[in-house]
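With this grant's support, we have settled on a layout for protein records. An illustrative entry appears below exactly as we store it:
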Amino acid sequence: MNDFWNNHSDRYLEMAFRTGRCEILTNPDGYGKNTGECGDTIEMFLTVSNDRIEWVAFDTDGCVNTRACANTVAELVEKKTLEDAWKITTEDVVSYLETLPEESHHCAELAVGALYLALTNARINIRDSWKKLYQKNF
């Protein structure tokens, strides 16, 4: 276990163990759920105001690497416009974390995929605001 702490960057450790964004929003402006081949699932919730992401929350049943990636996506897109959030890539997540193991890069793909689904949902809810009324309350 001591190797775990020594083999990871401070940024990775912060993202892996931060819990402040782990919540299920009941009426998000954008929602995306993505399950990877490994079986891990990330649900991402966006609060949007004036085309800008104000808050990002997520829920996951995944491993510590999946949590680190979900927290990183949230960190990278919060306060950005929806358009700029689309520019976040798997490589951005891996680079930000610095020490995400190569065999866990799929966790970054999983988190970015959940973001893209949430952005798509937010776009629909903004364009056709009446649809949000019929969206599942989480």
